[in-house]
Design a protein that fits this description.
By secondary structure, this protein is of the alpha/beta class. The protein has 16 helices and eleven strands. It folds into two domains: 229 residues, Aldolase class I (TIM Barrel); 69 residues, no CATH class. The strands form two sheets. It has an eight-stranded parallel beta sheet with strand order 1-9-8-6-5-4-3-2. Strands 7-11-10 form a three-stranded antiparallel beta sheet. Strand 4, helix 6 and strand 5 form a beta-alpha-beta unit. It binds flavin mononucleotide.
């Protein structure tokens, strides 16, 4: 389903989109099928290059680009992991991505290659102080990620972070676009992000539950029964499963038996670093989500069923337009009252 081209922003104009929505390049979740579905629906789809192969159980990038079946899609990497396997960026650039999305580390060492390939660079940031290095790297788009987000992130909240980032860019780099990420799952969220000064949004958790995502059914079953109260941020799980995340970033996940046992005991988990790696990998193989964590943000409470990405984008865009039109009339009563 394609989205009508009525929600125009600088992002839709520069990238030729029908709606100012990107899917997050979610590691192990956003393959070529999801990326292609988002592009087909008028947004811009991204494949999750994730840990750049350093975890050892990640999908093959060429296969995922092939699965995108000719749709224009981008690729994202976890920057500190790409530092360890930088040649994967060459392989990704050979697939002619629509953009490269880097998050969680210093983008500058990778920027020259991306620019030489003529590919726009998108940098997701967690703090205002991260914007300057991203601008140094020549980012065409900054994504301000709030702590509400699913997966890894920082401490700033989307609502105050986005307008502060918008003002900062207006003062220092007015041509650089700004997207909001973290806590956006419906038309109200998209409309609010645009009113806060963003040129568009990045959806993670909402599209984690899309039909085309590689998400395990057992993780979704937990998500559909959860509310936003059931997520937490912790560094303990990465330490225990032996994934070397820098301590600047914590992990927002759905609580389960493992987080009940460890979430409040980060120092103990750091001391036991890597001790649950084999247990965790075995649980992943058998789909045991009391051990493996379901990775979702606070908007998990708005997910109740798996839907096609195209339907999600069409509804969010239509609802945002309705919300913005009502706001334009000064009418903030809930619909139907
Ligand atoms: C399952 C999942 C995996 C994610 N993996 C990545 C990743 O590999 N790289 C990345 O830059 N961001 C990743 N993120 C974070 C997103 O980029 C984005 O900031 C976040 O999903 C936005 O918040 P939301 O989940 O509330 O929509 C992930 C998010 C989720 C939910």
């Amino acid at each position: 389903m394609s989205t009508p081209a009525r929600l125009r922003t600088r992002l839709t104009e520069r990238f030729g989109l029908d709606t100012p929505v990107l899917n997050a390049p979610m590691a192990l979740v956003a393959g070529g099928a999801l990326a292609a579905a988002v592009t087909r629906a008028g947004g811009l789809g991204f494949i999750g290059g994730g840990y750049a192969g350093t975890l050892g159980h990640e999908p093959d990038l060429h296969a995922e680009f092939a699965r995108a079946a000719g749709q224009r899609v981008g690729i994202g990497f976890i920057t500190w992991a790409l530092d360890r396997a930088p040649t994967l960026l060459d392989a990704a650039l050979a697939c002619k991505p629509a953009a490269v999305f880097l998050s969680f580390g210093d983008p500058r060492p990778h920027a020259a290659k991306i620019h030489a390939a003529g590919v726009p660079l998108i940098c997701q940031v967690q703090r205002l102080a991260d914007i300057a290095p991203a601008l140094d790297a020549g980012a065409a788009i900054i994504v301000a990620q709030g702590t509400e987000a699913g997966g890894h992130g920082g401490d700033r909240a989307t609502f105050p972070f986005v307008p502060e980032a918008a003002d900062h860019l207006a003062a220092h780099s007015p041509d650089t676009l700004l997207l909001a990420a973290g806590g956006i799952a419906d038309g109200r969220g998209l409309a609010a992000a645009l009113l806060l000064g963003a040129d568009g949004v990045v959806l993670g958790t909402r599209l984690w539950a899309a039909e085309e995502a590689l998400t395990h059914d057992a993780a979704l079953a937990r998500a559909f029964a959860a509310s936003g109260d059931d997520t937490l941020r912790t560094r303990a799980i990465d330490a225990l499963r032996g994934v070397p995340w820098p301590e600047d970033f914590s992990f927002r996940i759905l609580r389960n038996a493992l987080t009940d046992a460890w979430a409040g005991r980060e120092a103990d988990a750091f001391a036991a670093r890597g001790s649950l790696q084999a247990t965790y990998d075995a649980a992943r193989q058998r789909g045991d989500y009391e051990v493996v964590v379901a990775v979702a943000g606070e908007v998990v409470g708005q997910l109740r069923q798996r839907e096609a990405a195209g339907d999600i984008l069409a509804r969010i865009t239509g609802d945002a337009l309705t919300a913005l039109a009502r706001a334009g009339n000064g009418d903030f009563r809930p619909p139907g009252t």
